[in-house]
Design goal:
Blueprint lengths: L7 H15 L8 H15 L3 H10 L1 H11 L10 H10 L1 H4 L5 E6 L5 H12 L6 E7 L2 H9 L1 E3 L3 H10 L10 E4 L2 E4 L1 H4 L2 E5 L11 E5 L9 H14 E8 L9 H4 L2 E5 L4 E4 L2
Parallel strand pairs: 1-2, 1-7, 2-6, 7-8
Antiparallel strand pairs: 3-5, 4-5, 8-10, 9-10
Helix pairs in contact: 1-3, 3-4
Length: about 270
């Protein structure tokens, strides 16, 4: 059986089933992106749309596997090094006078980005008064993030990224290598917490000086993007920073007027009242 592509009506039926049975609402995700991911699942598993509907209706364990496949979880340490260099230059000096700092990485996937932030703050002598939260809807990648254990063969690229970001040390200072894996050191993990949070349905859970969310909003339609930006605004302390990266921006006029643009290229904003 060759699956060409799931059609619009079948996709809508899936979205309704997922919302009613599992409580996840994909209706405001970019339909083109979600359609591509679902079609990929059908082709890899040699399923029809009917087969997929039945599995999602009757098999809760299968839904967990499905969620992993349709939510994008590709990341690496210090990915897009100039983004981190901008944070070193524009944000960390500003935060130097704060007594307590809270940082939220929304859509953290397997955790490499949040650990990269933790290293930046350690090198700016801010780690001891900082707490880092990483959230994602995917429980399996959160397990990897909590372990802080990654493949050794990824560290070459991670190290190159780190150097380009304005490295102050050797990246190996922050992990222990054993056999074919590395483990992030306790000195970087001790102030880090990972937990489940759904940007589509969950609300504000803290007040942050820095929020980072990259390569997530591009999978949402404009209404959901605006809703999530509003969530970030409400979650930021006065003059807190929102870091979206080079691929995403705030397009809504009412929302952009609530922020000061700090770095246009890397889409780093500061909340203003």
């Amino acid at each position: 059986m060759i699956i060409e592509e799931i059609n619009t009506e079948e996709l809508h039926d899936l979205i309704v089933i997922i919302k009613n049975v599992h409580g996840f609402d994909f209706s405001d995700y970019s339909q083109a992106s979600f359609k591509r991911q679902v079609t990929k699942v059908l082709q890899l598993e040699k399923l029809s749309a009917f087969d997929l509907r039945m599995l999602l209706t009757n098999d809760p364990l299968y839904f967990e596997q499905f969620l992993i496949k349709v939510t994008v979880n590709v990341t690496e340490m210090f990915r897009d090094p100039l983004f981190y260099k901008s944070i070193r230059e524009h944000i960390l000096p500003y935060l130097g006078s704060y007594q307590r700092l809270k940082i939220w990485n929304a859509g953290c996937a397997s955790g490499e980005e949040l650990y990269s932030f933790a290293i930046l703050f350690a090198e700016a002598n801010l780690y001891h008064r900082s707490f880092f939260y990483g959230t994602d809807i995917n429980l399996d990648v959160l397990k990897v993030a909590k372990s802080g254990i990654y493949a050794l063969n990824k560290m070459k690229q991670n190290t190159e990224n780190y150097k380009e970001s304005g490295a102050l040390n050797s990246l190996s200072k922050y992990y222990t290598a054993k056999y074919d894996a590395v483990s992030i050191k306790h000195s970087i993990k001790k102030n880090v917490l990972f937990s489940s949070h759904n940007l589509v349905s969950d609300g504000v859970f803290n007040e942050f000086q820095v929020i980072s969310c990259r390569n997530v909003l591009i999978y949402f339609n404009s209404d959901l993007q605006n809703k999530v930006i509003q969530l970030f605004y409400d979650s930021l302390a006065n003059f807190g920073f929102l870091c979206l990266g080079s691929k995403e921006t705030i397009r809504n006029t009412d929302l952009i007027n609530r922020f000061k643009v700090i770095d246009k290229k890397n889409n780093i904003y500061q909340r203003i009242d």
